[in-house]
Records
---
Amino acid sequence: MKTQEYKEQFQQIFENSMIGMAIVDLKGNWVRANKSLCDMLGYAEEELVQLNVRDLSRPSDLERTDELLNRLITGDTPHAKLEKEYKHKEGHFIWVAIAVTLLYDTSGTPMHYVSQLEDITRRKEIEDDLLLSEKKYRTIFENVQDVFYQTDHKGIIKEISPSIEMHSGYMRQEIIGKPVENFYYYVEDRDRIVQELQTSGSVIDFEVRLKTKTDELKYASVNARLVFENGQLVGGEGSMRDVTARKFNENVLQALNQELAASNEQKNRLFSIIGHDLRNPISGSLQLVDLMLHDIRTNATDEIERSLRMMQNELQSASELLEDLLTWARAQLNAVDFNRVEIHDIEDILRSSIQPAQTMAEKKEVTITIREVAAGAALSADRSMLKTIIRNLVTNAVKFTDPGGQVNISVEKKTSGLLFIVRDNGRGIPEEKVAHLFNRSFTYTTFGTNGEKGTGLGLDLCQGFVRKHGGEIWVESKLGEGSAFYFIIPRL
C-alpha cells in the first residue's frame, strides 16, 4: 500500500513541479515530461516523447553529457549536475541546469534517468554581460596609462593596474601586498594625503612625489576616496597620473618668468641710470663749461681751475659708469670675450685694479692696502674680468668707508683655488639685505659715506664674471663695523 502511495506522491510532484521534470530511458529517449518542461522547450509531451535527448542538444555538448551519464551507470557518482543548451521548438537555444539521478527496478538494475531541469537562460545572459563588462574593465585596467589602485584599511595595496610598471619600473606583483607608504619619495606627502582623506573623504588632483624602483623622483596627481561598507572603513581606491613632464614644464616656465622679471628689473635700472646717474654729470659738466667761458672773459683763472677739477671728477665718474654699463650690457648678451690665461703676477693685477679707486680714496683719506698675497699664488683666469671684479669691489669698499678708514686686500691659497678678500671698516650692510645682495631680482643701492651714488651694476658684473670662471662670491657684513667680500677662482 505504501508503494502505491509513493507512486501517487511522485506523480503529483512530477506533474505539479514548478521546474521541469522528465523521465528518460537509458538510450536518451524522452519517456515522460511534465508541463513545466514542455512549456520550457515549447513541445507538447506527445511531441517530446518522440524525440531523443540528442535531438535537442548541441553536438559540442554530447561527449560531456555521455561522460556524466556513464558515471551514473557505473556508480561512480549518485547523481550528476550539468549546465547545457537545449533547442527550443521555435529553433533558438535555451540554457538549462540539469540534475540527474537513476531510477532502479526491484532487482537494482538501472531503468531510467530522472531529470530536473531549470531554465537559466536569463542568469546566463547576466553572467555573459558581467563577463563582457569585466573584460572591458580589464582591458581598460591593463592598457590605460593612468594607474588605478585599491588598498585595504591599513594602506596595504590589494590591486594595482599594470601601467604602474611603465611609470615606476615595478611589476604589479612587486607592489601588491606592500604598504603604499613604501612608494612615497617624501613621507610628508603621505601624511598630507592621509590627513586630507580623513578630513574630506576624498582628494582631487592631489600632487605627491613618488619614487621609482631606481629611486628616481616622479610627480603624480592623485584622485582617491575612502571606501566604506556598513559604515566601516574597508580601504581606499583611486587613480594616479604621472605629471612629471608637466611639473618640469611648470618649473621651466617659472624659471623663465623669473628670468624675464629680472631682465625687466635690469632694464628699468638701466633706464634709471641713463636718465639720472649718467645725465647728471654730463649736465653738470656743461654748466661748468658755461661758467669757465664766463670766467675766461673775466680772467678768473682760479675759478677756471676749480671748475676744471670739478669737471674732471664729474667726467671721471661718468666714464667709469659708462664703462660699467657697456661691460654689463655685453655680459647680458654673452658678448664678453673670455680669454683664460695663466696668471702669476697676482700683485700687479691687484695694483692696476685698485688704481681707478685711488683718486676717490685720497679725497676721502681712505687707505687702500694690499695686505697679503700668498707666496706662489697663481691661477688660470681672464685678466680683464679679474681686474673688473677687483676694481668694482675695491671701489664699493672705498665708497662705503668713512674718511680715515681702511680697505685691505688679501689673496689666500685654498685647496679649491685662490681666495680673494676685499675688507673694509666702513658702515656695513643691514643684515636683512646681505642674503639678497647677489639676487638679480633684488636691487640694493644706497649713497656712499660722501654721498656717492651707486647703481648695483658692479656686483652684478662681479657675480657674473666669478661664475664664468666656475667660482663663488659671497659677503660677510656687520652694520657699523664694515664688510668683507670674498670670491674664489678654482684652479684648473
---
Amino acid sequence: MGYQFHTISWLLLVTTLISILVAFVAWQRRSMLVAKYLTFMECGVAVWAFSSFFKTSAVDLSHILILIWSQISYLGITTTPLFYFLLALAYGRHYRFW
C-alpha cells in the first residue's frame, strides 16, 4: 500500500487548502445565513478534493485504497451541490421556497 503523487494530486491538495481557507473566513462571518452555507459547501469541497488527492495518488494492486478514498469522497460529492443550492437560495433571498 503506497502513494505516488503527481501534478494533478498536488493541484487537488492546493484546492483543499484554498477551500479550508475560504471556509474559515466565511465561518468568521457566520451571523449571515449565506456565510453558513458557504462554510458548509466549502467543507464539502475540501473533503471531496482531499479524498480525491489520495484517490488519484493511490498505488495498490488490490485497489482497496482507491475504494476507501472513493467512499470518503462521496460525502463531499453529495453535500457540495446541496449546500450550493441552499447558498443560492439564501443569496437571492428566496426564503419562501424552504
---
Amino acid sequence: MKLAASSWSVHRALEDGKMTQQDFILKCSREWHLDGVELLDRHFPRPTKNYLRELKRICTCEGLTISCIAVSNDFGKPTAAERRDEVDKVRKWIEAAAFLGAPVIRVFAGSAQERPEQIRPKMVENLRRCSDSGEEAGVILGLENHGGFTQKPEDLLNILREVDSKWLMHVLDTGNYGDHSYDSIEKTLPEAVHVHAKVIKLDGLDYGRIMTLLRKYKYQGFLSVEYEGKGEEVGETSRAIAMLRGHLRQ
C-alpha cells in the first residue's frame, strides 16, 4: 500500500487563499514525503491545458503520482438537462485525468431529494455512460460511498452490479458508513480501487482494525489521508499521516 493525501484535508486553507494547489503538492512531496496526491476538482484554479501541463511537470519532478482526481458530481439532479451537465462534467475530468496520468477519478452517485425511485435508473445509466468514457480514456471511475444512493454498502454494490463495467469500481471512504463502519467496510472493500483514510480525530476510527481488513483483502492501492476535523489542517494532517505510516510499518 502507498500513502497519499487528499486536498480536502486542507480545503479551508485552499478555499481561503492561504495555500495554493501547488503549495499543497509541494507539501505532500517535500514535507510529508508521500507517494501520491489526490486533487479535488474544486481545487483546480483553472483546469486549462497549460495549467494541467505545468501541474503534471511539477508532480513528475517531485516524484508524486496523482493517485486520484475527486469529482463532485451529482446524478440525482431533478432535470434531464442538469444530469446531462453532470455527465459532461465527469467526462471533462476523465479527459484531464488521462492527460495528467491519474489512473482513477472519484465520482458520486448523487442524491435525489424528489422522486428517487424514478431518478435512480437514470443515475445508473449515467454512470454506465461515464464508465464507457473512462474505458475509452483508460481511466477507472471509483464510486464513493457518500450517502444518497450509496447510503448502505448494499446500495453501492447493487449499483456496481447494475452498471456491470470493470471501469467502474469503488472509492472506499472509511468514515462514511456511520455506526456500522467496520462491517460495511468489509462488504465493499473487495471492490475498492482507492481508499479515503478519513480522519476527524486521531483516536476516532480504529485504523489497526481497518488495516487488518485491507491486508485481508490484499488491497495494494493508495491510502489517501482525508482530514475532516475542525483543528488546524496542516498540523492535524501531518499527525494523521504519521499515524497511518506507523500502521503500514507494522
---
Amino acid sequence: MRNRERGLRLKRPLLLKCFLRYVGSVSLLALVAVAMPHSWMDATHRWLGLGEMPSGPIVGYLTRTLSAFYALLGGLLWVLSFDLKRHLPVLRYVAWAMIGFGGIALIVDWQVGLPWHWTVFEGPMVIAFGKVILWLARSVSEEGR
C-alpha cells in the first residue's frame, strides 16, 4: 500500500468523527424552528418563493416535529462520533437510512412541486451524506484487521 493511501486510511476515522459532528451540529440548529413563531416561518416561506404558509394544527405539528426529529438525529450523530468502533453497526444503519430517506425526499419534493433548487439540493445532499459516512466508516472496520 502506498504511503499516501495508508495515510488517508488512517485519517478517515478522524474525518468521520468531524463529519458526524459537523452534520450533527447543523441538524441541532433545527431546534430553533421547534419554538419559532408562525410569523417567522411564514416570512421564511415567502422568502423562499413558496407564498403564504398555510396555518392550522397539522402544519404546526409537522413543521415542529420534523424540526425536533432533525435535532434528535443531530444529537445521535454526536453520540455515535464518540466511539466509532462500538457504534459501527448503528453508523452503517444511519448511513443507509439517510441514502433511502434522500431518495424518498427527492421523489416527494418533485411530486409536491417544490422549487427545482430545493429538489436538487435536499435529496441528493442527504444521499451524499449517507455515502460519505459509509465510505469513511470502511476505515473503522479495516482497523480491526
